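Usage example:
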Amino acid sequence: MTSVVGYSGRAALDALHAGGMVCVLIVDTLNWLFVQPLRGKGLRLRSTVEHFVEFGVRSMPIVGLICFLVGVIIAMQSAYTLEKWGATKFIANLVGISALRELAPLMTAVLITGRCGSAITAEIGTMKVAEEIDALHVMGLNPTKFLIVPKFLAMLVAVPCVTVLAMFIMILGGFLLSCSPLVGVDPVIYYEQTVNSLVAKDMVTGVVKSIFFGITICWVGIYRGFQVEGGAEGVGRKTTSSVVTSIFLIILLDLVWTTLFYFA
Amino acid sequence: MAASNDNDIIIEVRDLVVKYGDRTVLDGINFQVRRGEIFVILGGSGCGKSTLLRNLVGLMRPYSGRILINGQDFTAMNDEERTDARKRMGMCFQGSALFGSMSVGDNVALPLREHTRLEESTIEIMTKIKLELVGLGGFGDFLPAELSGGMKKRASLARAMAMDPEIIFYDEPSAGLDPIVAAGLDGLIRKMQHTFNLTSVVVTHEMESVKQIADTVCMLERGRIVGLGALEELRALDYPYVQQFFARRAQDESQIDSAEYLRSLTGLE
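Running the assembly step on the lines above writes:
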């Protein structure tokens, strides 16, 4: 009994400590993102652009390919049911709504977690192990300004951009399958169905979600990176836990936002 | 008289106590480093010498005590003051700590790019001068991973020298290097001292290296200073740990207190 109490108490303290650490990181980042630049300390724009290219532009091929395939898959699954009622033109509604509101943001976030969230943790972790973070401190360079802010800014912009692209590609995938001889919807009807069924709010839902997913990926990656201790093994362990934590939080956040937009 | 004396002291440590949790790692450390000397902190593994260095450069906060650098209390500074103070010191890390994603030249140029408003062309020239100084002229475009261990340490020194500091801290400069390369690095530390009247604080456990470079030696054992002075003074000290270190003799197993050993095994008091 005491061990259960002790265990949950320790777990709660650990969670509290982690929460505190994340808060410190967030405050420090916001400070170097908004306050210090006004005091003439500047942002590292070049590094930010480089990170944007890495997180955004270089993620596009794989995100595009996978979202195209997912578009084809949802179209096929929808056709399976809708064919029975002769309502195949409504595939357009299903694909459009699920792509914009749910699947494009989610698939993009999961893929970018795997590609870039893990890379952030590994990079910061390796730097910590190799004393490079200490070197930054000793050289009078602030690690937050130097390492975190460029990644944060880049992620904040990159994830929504890639998500919007993913939305269109997913709809394209659904369109191509539905209009192929396999299902045989008239392309013009499919186009009209898509345009008529979607409203701006669907797109906003997806983009808002994706912004929060981007922040989550970045924060978890950085936090786990700074947690690394004890050489290469520690880097590997924290990289794995970075991906797991990030995907878990993304799904959780997705649920929260979906609920909010459902009632809103 | 007193004023000129104060001027000669560049680092002063007063009653420094450092703790990891409840464990006291450094206890009552007092010493002074004179301007332009090579001050060696010597000790076995786990004696607290790396911890002492981390405190000196401000990577750790002491539990109590003061560290005065140029008469200013380093431990009481705010972030901005500390950043300014750090521009006047450089550090060579044990594993070189060069940024792997940047070329060697960019590593050296980084402090200049961040802390000064010099023209890019000037920075390039200064970078080349610093690399030339440590014998790495022409290696500016190499990535750190393409350099050998000794070259990395030299590059690290070039980066530490970039801002023309007053003090350089070396963490185990000869660790993991063969005797020839290590001797070369010792020579380089001496050369920096002669050429720029640089104050150097070197943490090491290599006796050979100490003999080559030390002006003053501070010997640590279990977080306390057991010897402080010139190498010859230390050699003359009649203290078992110091003598053991100089003679490179292993800890005598028979000297271990049997009661203490028993306690450590059983965990009983």
